[in-house]
Amino acid sequence: MSVSNTLTWFGVALLGVFILVPLIYRLRHPDLKPTAATDRKMDRLIWVQIVFILIVLTTAVILRENGL
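RESULT FIELD:
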């Protein structure tokens, strides 16, 4: 398996984890009421996750173009 394929699957797995973990948490704790502070933290966390996934997937594409 090439490095680019490994990074691609790693990025897809991260995307799945980043979507499923908050969803499962919300389902298990439906009584939690978000506050302004937690909303800001979640917004920041979501943007960090998006940027990280984009970096991983972009690196995978660059490596694939270079034949690695």
